[in-house]
Amino acid sequence: MIYIDNRQDKIEVTNKLVEKVEEIINYALKEEEVHISTEVSVIFIDNENIRELNKEQRNIERVTDVLSFPMLDYSEGQVYKEVYEHNNFHDADLHEGQLILGDIVLSLERAKEQSEEYGHSFMREVCYLTVHSVLHLLGYDHMIDEDKIRMRKREEEILENFNITRN
């Protein structure tokens, strides 16, 4: 189950955008071998609110594009399919039979700015940020070079297979 909550009024949230976000999340989960019913929340906000959240949660007072709040614990360097391949979840990980993966908080305002800055479509930027965040929910990270290379490769593979390019 994917919950999408629009808490901003600067960028129009169309049905096409919502459908594409849901589709890319489902596709990324399938590609990452998540074979259990899941729950993911996506919250669209603006730059001011993501700056405040970034300060509260990470002690970084600046606008960012997306924040991820994973609910599962991973050891350093491990990802979902390495840890949970046999669906060995704790009861606390499940809500009414669904695995709670976590929350994605995405600034649509920043996504729009970045799409213009990088010269590709707004939809491509939102899809990229969504895949990036889903991978965070599944244990991927980019704090050290080795992990960053692994995560970037996976992002591009999913987007390419989903037929989303930089154009």
UniProtKB/TrEMBL annotation:
Pfam families: YbeY. Keywords: Cytoplasm, Endonuclease, Hydrolase, Metal-binding, Nuclease, Ribosome biogenesis, rRNA processing, Zinc. It is found in: Cytoplasm. Zn(2+) binds at residues 132, 136, 142. PROSITE patterns: UPF0054 (PS01306). Its EC number is 3.1.-.-. It is an enzyme of class 3 (hydrolase). Binds 1 zinc ion. SUPFAM superfamilies: Metalloproteases ('zincins'), catalytic domain. Its cofactor is Zn(2+). Belongs to the endoribonuclease YbeY family. Single strand-specific metallo-endoribonuclease involved in late-stage 70S ribosome quality control and in maturation of the 3' terminus of the 16S rRNA. This is Endoribonuclease YbeY. It comes from Clostridium ganghwense. The lineage of its organism: Bacteria, Bacillati, Bacillota, Clostridia, Eubacteriales.
